[in-house]
Amino acid sequence: MEKFKANFKLSMVFVYILLIFGAIIMIFPFFWMITGAFKTTLEINLFPPVWIPSSFNLDNFKYALQAAPFARYFINSLIAMVGSVSVCTFTTILAAFAFSKLKFPGREVIFTLLLALMMVPFEMLVITNYQTVISWKIYDTVWALIIPFTSSIFYTYILKGFFDSVSDSLYYSARIDGCSNWKYLWRVLVPMAKPSLVTIILLNAISRWNSFLWPMIATINVSNRTLPFGLYAFVNEGGAKTELMLAASTITVLPMIILFLFARKNIVNGVARGGIKG
Amino acid sequence: MTKVAKVHEDGPKRTLKQMIEPYIYLLPFAFGIIVFTLYPIVNVVLMSFKNNYDFMSRSFSGWGLENYIYVLNDSYFHQALANTFKYVFIIIPISMCLSILLANLLNQKIKGSAIFQTAFFLPMVTSTTAVGLTWRFMFNNNSGIINAMLGLFGIEPINWLQIAGNNFYALCIYGIWAILPFTIILLLSGLQNIDPLYYTAAKVDGASSTKIFFKITIPLLAPTIFLVMCINTISTFKVFNDLFPLFSGPGVANNLFTAVYYIYYQFRVTRPPRYGRAAAAAVILFLIIFVMTMIQKWVEKKTKY
Questions:
Q1: Distance between CA atoms of B164 and B170, rounded to whole angstroms?
Q2: What is the pLDDT of residue A137?
Q3: Which residue of A has its CA nearest to B260?
Q4: B124 with B182: CB under 8 angstroms?
Q5: Helix (H, G, I), strand (E, B) or coil at A239
Q6: What is the percent of chain A where pLDDT is above 90?
Q7: Which of A154, B14, B101, B231 is buried most, with the most CB atoms less than 10 Å from its CB?
């Protein structure tokens, strides 16, 4: 028994060492980004590198905000995210309800076809969507960042799964009591589906905030860029100073880090359930 | 009984409303799907067969296979496919092994699992652009932390970013780091679905932990492992975003073309834009991904019990 205990302890020490080592590697780029955002030009270029900056003042953030309109990018990102996520959540709720509770010819066939559409990569749709936003004269506006993302098959699929799990007898008894579909959906189903809704809203918000390919294609003017694309352009066009780039990167990732710290379980469960990247 | 009769009463009026109502609920959703998913699929396939298609004038010289012939003979496209396959074959096995190990460690009864989970999963929610730019700084030849660390082991500084060949490995290292969180989450949830009775039984029989790992954990986790491998193969096949923060494009002297970058290059970099060629490349990419998805679905069906 003693030997077993010693063995057990030893193996647990080994587990912790590996986990701590792994965690350091995963978290290190963030540590390096945030500490780098406080370093001076001299400190950032020293070799071997300086581990901890000499002072923690916000000068680099101030200079970065002056060097490029990051405040504007932040607001653009926010508008694009809130706009597309709120509309998408609305269309998702309605569609998931129709596919789950309402009866219409071809319901199953249409839903199966939609699931098949999910495997078409976004990268393939981008060519035509680029042409569409040009034709609609919304190229290089915030609308181009919102309108193409107002429906999602994936989130509809997740929410329909939840609606399906709510017993139909509840629906029929509510209907017999004179409750309209609309009322039943918003007064009964939506409040019940709150955890699922929070998950799809979080996953959607994260992917909208971080999206890079589409904003790079659909916007060109400095004043219409979102944070990830604006950050990239800042580095690519101006040969920006590293410490300012790191300060701007910190501004970009901070909202999502905060979101993750508060809603980790929800996000992780959503990813595990959906099997699709956020 | 009376209530049922009441529903029946206003029969014809209700049926008409009932007939239309579902479509009203579907309308806002359908608009986005039809315009931004369905139409683009049809359009991209049609466009790929239009020779010399010009978007501005909507004109083309005729239907045919010219775009496909061009793309399939383009050395950049060959390079793009070769790079993409090489990337997938490096990333998938390494990231799977690391993830299986780490998911198992996270599945132990450990203290501070919330802290570990936060650390391991954080990269999943943060912008690849911002983090990729930080990696670019870490890979820096002169002041990068990675070369500094290698220096501690007496390894000469490696020019990760500016030498063709090296930059491919920088892309892979970053790619593995970036895919770990998602992979670990799915494997961890697979592990948590394994009935603990199996472990109890094995421990009672005195099986060693190595034996438990290879004889119980791995076989029971196999369906999840394969599923995650399929999802990751498809997503790594679309490698594209990482090229921008790390190398500001497809690397030194265009040595890092990938399949998706090739599409982007044809309709957004080349002047005038070659929509037909981009479309043909997109259709080819889709066919490759389609085959992978079919394999995934087939295995999912086989392993469902």
A1: 11
A2: 94
A3: A123
A4: yes
A5: coil
A6: 60
A7: B231
ipTM above 0.90, yes or no: no
Task: Report all structural domains of chain A as residue ranges with CATH numbers, in order of start.
Answer: 2-59 (no CATH), 61-274 (1.10.3720.10)
- Given a contact cutoff of 8 angstroms between Cβ atoms, the answer to whether B79 and B250 are in contact is no
Is the Cα dihedral A77, A78, A81, A87 positive or negative?
Answer: negative
Residue-level pLDDT at B34? 95
Find the length of chain B: 305
Residue of B nearest to A146 (CA): B32
C-alpha B236: how far from chain center: 5
Residue identified by tokens 């078409």 is A120
pLDDT in tens, B246-296: 998 888 888 899 999 999 999 889 888 899 999 999 999 999 988 988 887
Gyration radius of chain B over CA positions: 26
Dihedral (Cα; A114, A120, A124, A129), 10-degree rounding: 20
For residue A71, give the amino acid letter.
A
User: Looking at residue A8, what is its pLDDT?
Assistant: 63
Angle formed by the axes of helices B11-33 and A70-101, to 10°?
150
Supply the pLDDT for residue B44.
Answer: 94
CB contact at 8 A, A247 and A61 = yes
How far is the C-alpha of B277 from the C-alpha of B264, rounded, in Å? 10
- Output b/e per residue, B182-203; b: 16+ Cβ within 10 A: bbbbbbbbbbeeeeeeeeeebe
Nearest CB to A151; choose among B22, B29, B126 = B29
Q: In which residue ranges of chain B is CATH 1.10.3720.10 found?
A: 67-303
Long-range contacts of the stretch B5-12 (C-beta < 8 A, 24+): B7/A175, B7/A176
Number of other residues whose CB lies within 10 A of the CB of residue A55 = 9
Give pLDDT tens digits for A37-83: 999 888 888 878 888 888 888 989 998 888 889 999 999 999 999 99
Give the mean pLDDT of chain A: 89
In A, which residues are within 8 Å of B41 by CB distance? 117, 120, 124-125
Q: How far is A192 from chain B (nearest CA, A)?
A: 19
Are B289 and A36 within 8 A, CB to CB? Answer: no
B285–chain A nearest CA distance, Å: 8
Residue type, B282: A
- 1.10.3720.10, 2.60.40.1120, 2.40.50.100, 3.20.20.70: CATH of B67-303: 1.10.3720.10
Half-sphere exposure of A164 (CA within 13 A, CB side): 10
The tokens for A205 are: 């918000």
Query: Touching check for B151 and chain A: CB below 8 Å?
Result: yes
Residues in chain B with CB shorter than 8 Å from the CB of A117 are: 33, 37-38, 41
* Dist. CA B283–CA B68, nearest whole Å: 9
Amino acid at A107: R
- The alpha helices in A102-165, defined as continuous H runs, are 107-117, 122-135, 143-146, 153-165
Residue of B nearest to A211 (CA): B127
